[in-house]
């Protein structure tokens, strides 16, 4: 978040009048939305039930934006014309229910912001792979010379960027929670990487509700827009059989040859979506693993649809460094590889990580369970995992699932302890993998904090 004062009077482009914008949540998306809202002529009030971080408080004070923390002044909030809700606030909290009962629109940052930009949007969602695909798409488009921003769940908020620079193109990583708050928002190119059970605690433990949330990314697409999706994904295919989207379908697959789209043949990615076919041997990709092959397919097709030259695409795929906290190689100590996959906050992400392991692995797992079913991991754990180190406050489900296939299961209460125990359990030639399959909020601020603490502990060995 840049601590800079916005010249409000010079930048008001829409005559909003003095509509009241209430922003629930004083984090990255909330403060960015507040700045953009004030710039566009709204009367803005930020309300956070918790404590607002000092860096965000400074920005609000610097821009003379009214705010409160550690409470919600309900009477004032219910006078709003529109409310932007932070994605971390569930839809079923009493205040949000009351706002909707009073017919006050409760929208996401994406919905609020798009009305103030004419940029081409590449919107990316999915249970797994969306961060890597977003970073990779941005990397290719930036190398191609496009005026491109990256936002959503990455970096500065979308709203703040539109307030400050308003680029011609944006790649947005969009969560299901953000999609739940859209009505008119649209991506010219929408990418759905996959759908596997995740965040079910926010969707009444109903997988179909979560699937419907993900497909909101194509809700407002037109015939001139594109929907890139994983044609191997059962949940996606089932939805497409029963529902329609106006967008042109652009599939990718590792399992079948496609007459239109991207597929894998003889260890080579083949992309056939316009007159210029692309052939890329897997050996030329900087990121490895089946899931990353799919991420590369999706990003490449998005770039092709925006008329990027295939030489630029190939060079970008070879030079891309990958996402922090996603199968990130931290160090090799006494011939043991330490890998930070803290971003694996669900079972499917951990499945990908274990699938990539080509060494006997000490697996650090655990945290806040979001309704996980670990049974899909059993074959991989049986084959590759020599010991499990639990990193969470409630490890019963992990112990019950894996005690019959792994002899050694140890419970720890912090990153430093988990790393020290893992060092003792590992031998030369092994790997230590932090891939928690769970959220991090029991012991850490977020998955980044968990990953950073893990890396610090490894480097202190």
Automatic annotation (TrEMBL):
UniProt entry tagged with the keyword ATP-binding: yes
Gene: murD
Membrane-crossing residue ranges in chain numbering: none
UniProt cross-references to Pfam families, sorted A to Z: Mur_ligase_C, Mur_ligase_M, MurD_N
Gene Ontology MF: a single term: UDP-N-acetylmuramoylalanine-D-glutamate ligase activity
Occurrences of domain Mur ligase C-terminal (ranges): 325-438
Residues where ATP binds: 126-132
Primary location: cytoplasm
Keywords assigned: ATP-binding, Cell cycle, Cell division, Cell shape, Cell wall biogenesis/degradation, Cytoplasm, Ligase, Nucleotide-binding, Peptidoglycan synthesis
Highest taxon listed in the record's lineage: Bacteria
EC code: 6.3.2.9
Function, in words: Cell wall formation. Catalyzes the addition of glutamate to the nucleotide precursor UDP-N-acetylmuramoyl-L-alanine (UMA).
Pathway the protein acts in: Cell wall biogenesis; peptidoglycan biosynthesis
Boundaries of every Mur ligase central domain copy: 124-303
Organism: Polaribacter marinivivus
Protein name per Swiss-Prot or TrEMBL: UDP-N-acetylmuramoylalanine--D-glutamate ligase
Keyword Iron-sulfur: no
InterPro entries xrefs: Mur-like_cat_sf, Mur_ligase_C, Mur_ligase_C_dom_sf, Mur_ligase_cen, MurD
Catalytic reaction annotation: UDP-N-acetyl-alpha-D-muramoyl-L-alanine + D-glutamate + ATP = UDP-N-acetyl-alpha-D-muramoyl-L-alanyl-D-glutamate + ADP + phosphate + H(+)
Family to which this protein belongs: Belongs to the MurCDEF family.
């Amino acid at each position: 978040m840049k601590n800079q004062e916005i010249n409000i009077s010079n930048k008001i482009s829409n005559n909003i009048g003095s509509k009241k914008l209430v922003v629930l949540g004083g984090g990255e998306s909330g403060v960015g939305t507040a700045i953009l809202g004030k710039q566009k002529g709204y009367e803005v009030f930020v309300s956070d039930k918790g404590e607002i971080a000092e860096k965000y408080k400074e920005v609000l004070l610097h821009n003379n934006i009214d705010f409160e923390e550690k409470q919600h002044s309900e009477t004032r909030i219910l006078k709003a014309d529109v409310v932007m809700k932070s994605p971390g606030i569930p839809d079923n909290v009493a205040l949000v229910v009351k706002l909707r009962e009073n017919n006050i629109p409760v929208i996401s940052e994406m919905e609020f912001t798009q009305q103030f930009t004419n940029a081409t949007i590449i919107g990316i969602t999915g249970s797994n792979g969306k961060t890597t695909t977003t970073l990779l798409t941005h990397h290719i488009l930036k190398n191609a010379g496009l005026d491109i921003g990256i936002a959503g769940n990455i970096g500065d908020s979308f709203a703040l960027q539109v307030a400050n620079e308003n680029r011609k193109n944006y790649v947005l990583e969009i969560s299901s929670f953000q999609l739940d708050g859209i009505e008119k928002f649209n991506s010219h190119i929408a990418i759905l990487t996959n759908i596997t059970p995740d965040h079910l605690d926010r969707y009444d433990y109903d997988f179909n509700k979560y699937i419907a949330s993900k497909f909101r990314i194509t809700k407002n697409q037109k015939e001139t827009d594109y929907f890139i999706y994983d044609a191997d994904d059962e949940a996606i295919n089932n939805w497409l059989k029963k529902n329609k989207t106006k967008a042109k379908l652009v599939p990718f697959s590792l399992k079948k040859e496609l007459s239109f789209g991207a597929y894998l043949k003889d260890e080579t990615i083949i992309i056939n979506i316009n007159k210029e076919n692309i052939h890329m041997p897997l050996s030329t990709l900087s990121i490895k693993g089946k899931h990353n092959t799919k991420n590369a397919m999706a990003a490449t097709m998005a770039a092709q649809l925006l008329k990027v030259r295939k030489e630029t695409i190939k060079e970008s795929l070879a030079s891309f460094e990958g996402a922090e906290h996603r199968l990130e190689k931290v160090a090799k100590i006494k011939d043991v590889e330490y890998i930070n996959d803290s971003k694996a906050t669900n079972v499917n992400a951990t499945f990908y990580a274990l699938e990539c392991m080509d060494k006997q692995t000490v697996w650090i797992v655990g945290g806040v369970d979001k309704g996980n079913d670990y049974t899909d991991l059993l074959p991989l754990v049986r084959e590759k995992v020599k010991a499990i180190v639990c990193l969470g406050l409630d490890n019963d489900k992990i112990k019950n699932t894996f005690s019959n296939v792994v002899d050694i299961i140890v419970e720890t209460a912090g990153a430093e302890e988990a790393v020290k125990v893992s060092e003792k359990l590992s031998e030369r030639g092994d790997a230590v993998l932090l891939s928690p399959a769970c959220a991090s909020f029991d012991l850490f601020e977020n998955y980044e904090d968990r990953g950073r603490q893990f890396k610090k502990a490894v480097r202190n060995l």
